[in-house]
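Sanity check. The docking grid for zinc ion depends on where the pocket ends up, so I'm generating a full predicted complex first rather than guessing from homology. Inputs follow.
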Amino acid sequence: MDRDLSDDDSVVDLSFEAESPLAPPAELLETLPSCDWVLQGDRHQIFFPPSETTGRPQEQRCWSSFLEHRVPVVTEEVAREALLSFVNSKCCYGSAAAGDLVILELKQQNLCRYRLETFSESRISEWTFQPFTNHSVDGPQRGTSPRLWDIKVQVPPMFQEDTRRFQVPHSSLVKECHKCHGRGRYKCSGCHGAGTVRCSSCSGAKRKAKSARRCQMCSGSGRRRCSTCSGRGNKTCATCKGEKKLLHFIQLVIAWKNSLFEFVSAHQLDCPGELLAKARGETLFKDENTTVYPIVDFPLREISLASRRGISEHSAALASRARVLQQRQTLELIPLTEVRYWYQGKTDAYYIYGTDHQVYVADYPERCCCGCTII
Ligand SMILES: [Zn+2]
Ligand SMILES: [Zn+2]
Ligand SMILES: [Zn+2]
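Predicted complex below; grid placement will be based on this.
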């Protein structure tokens, strides 16, 4: 819509201009949804919005519907089945106790496991060389080398780690081989170039000690062919593979890496945390994007805090040295049941964890000690 220009309008309003030429105007960025993380806070480049402001409105998630996602209750029958199949998978556990023990109590808790995976790309450059085999040289005369992050490469599938090396365009130069000084070969160190070495059998004496017969190993010559160089006296330079020249160039090394942050909600049961970290869970929520935002309104406060902590930890660890390509956060329900039992006058407990009913038992009553591991 056009409007009349008054005198006042001839003064250019600079209030919306960026303060630094490195930073594009914020208004411009607002129109680019994929860039909404670029300028936050003090106009510094960061990969995540500060945790105080979420950057974009939180989608209203109805957590109660997620939590209604019930994991089936572990019954006495299920608890015994799980123990029996665990015992049967171990060579030194007897199954009689598992069948006979009296189950006294089942205490089931559903734990929450939060996972954040961040897939990032880092780039470094290094000088390297290879034998020069007379191909054309892509040196600085063909143009300036692109900046490290301007080189376009094929990205592997997300969350698949990989390391690849690329030759930086226009960075090549040919030099004489430093190892052989451009000869392509060098003198054999085994025979100092002679091609033969002293016979080890007669020590060069041509005949064995206290024997009139000539040495059979060297046919009486006192010398044998050098095995290092097969009698040639010299060796092909391993550095230039005999090409005499080396092609030096800048190599771009790209590493795609997955960082993992994991948190399992607190529980009072005596089951090792490393088992719960590996346990199979029921997915409640999965969120994947170029940048994910902290879960702020989850009913379990420790989960919301863990999400915020994980995101800021990854941000701090990666921001200065890598580019984040994709993030994924998942929330899973891990069922954990403590089974208290009585067997031969003693009470003890074992644990059933994960949706696939894995068993952890610290002190099984019927065990021989052939040395197989418990877990
Ligand atoms: Zn030799
Ligand atoms: Zn000999
Ligand atoms: Zn060489």
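Relevant for the grid: Residues 199, 201-202, 215, 217-218, 222 surround zinc ion (ligand 2) (CB under 6 Å).
Also worth noting: The mean pLDDT is 80.
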